[in-house]
Design goal:
Length: 278
């Protein structure tokens, strides 16, 4: 298994270069085909407009705005791939970014997006990465707003809870895990059970990973009164982790995203890329 098609979200944000840098490096590393996708959101007339008010100026302003954003996104994509011998493709689609990324990512092995900007309002409550990860069925690699100090995948932390979501994330991350110099399986507050962790939490997943040639160690931790997400972030800093792998918990319905507490904490306070699956 490898990542042979990588889809990257190309928006007009100030941090788009960060996700482009990660996406192009991964494309080179895995010998993949890179697709840059830019979505032009539909025009929405303000609900306070009186009947009889001309729509022409509003439509003109909308066209100018979306055209400028498209040009900025295309420039960022061209800049990131210039001089690199990559198989690339540029797509522009009309629609909401979360809807379009959800569909297009189903025909890719990995989707790369940027962390949501919590300071700005978004038409997608909860944020774009979460919405797409909960609905697409493909792994989503989220790049922090501050960018990645180094290419992700040398020291990887797999957050393991013996759940369906964490199992899905582990499989989706195998290309990273198999190539990593070190993989830490982090188990926080494990509850032993025949239907979950088994008699020795972390041992079963470590054995499975070892059969894939993964260099793995298991670390068990307790959250006590702390939030589990903060424990994960602290351990990632302790071990100089450059990629966190996790299953995302929650649901997406009618453009509303409801996340579990761990997912919320990691995606709001992340300092290294996070690969998440649902």
């Amino acid at each position: 298994m490898s990542y042979k098609t990588i889809l990257v979200h190309c928006d007009a944000s100030k941090t788009v270069d960060h996700q482009m840098a990660v996406a192009t490096e991964l494309t080179e590393r895995f010998g993949a085909h890179l697709i840059g996708l830019h979505a032009r959101p539909p025009f929405e007339s303000p609900n306070y407009i009186d009947i009889g008010v001309p729509m022409g100026p509003l439509l003109d302003a909308y066209e100018q705005s979306v055209n400028a954003e498209q040009a900025a996104a295309a420039a960022a994509f061209d800049k990131s791939v210039k001089g690199k011998h990559l198989a690339t493709e540029w797509r522009v689609v009309d629609g909401y970014p979360d809807d379009e990324l959800t569909v297009n990512a189903r025909y890719a092995d990995l989707l790369v997006v940027g962390q949501s900007d919590r300071k700005n309002t978004s038409p997608i409550p909860g944020g774009l990465p979460e919405a797409v990860a909960l609905s697409t069925g493909r792994p989503v690699l989220v790049v922090p707003q501050i960018g990645a100090d180094k290419p992700p995948g040398s020291v990887v932390m797999l957050c393991w809870s013996a759940s369906r979501e964490s199992a899905r994330a582990a499989v989706d991350a195998l290309p990273f895990l198999k190539a990593a110099r070190e993989v830490i399986v982090l188990v926080v507050d494990p509850q032993t059970s025949a239907n979950g962790h088994g008699p020795e939490p972390g041992a079963d997943v470590a054995t499975w990973l070892a059969r894939h040639g993964v260099k793995v160690t298991v670390q068990r931790d307790v959250a006590a009164d702390a939030d589990v997400g903060n424990v994960i972030l602290s351990r990632a800093a302790d071990h100089d982790v450059d990629l966190i792998v996790m299953g995302i918990y929650g649901h997406s319905r009618l453009r509303e995203v409801v996340l579990g507490g761990v997912s919320r904490t990691l995606l709001s306070s992340m300092t290294v890329p996070v690969l998440m699956s649902h």
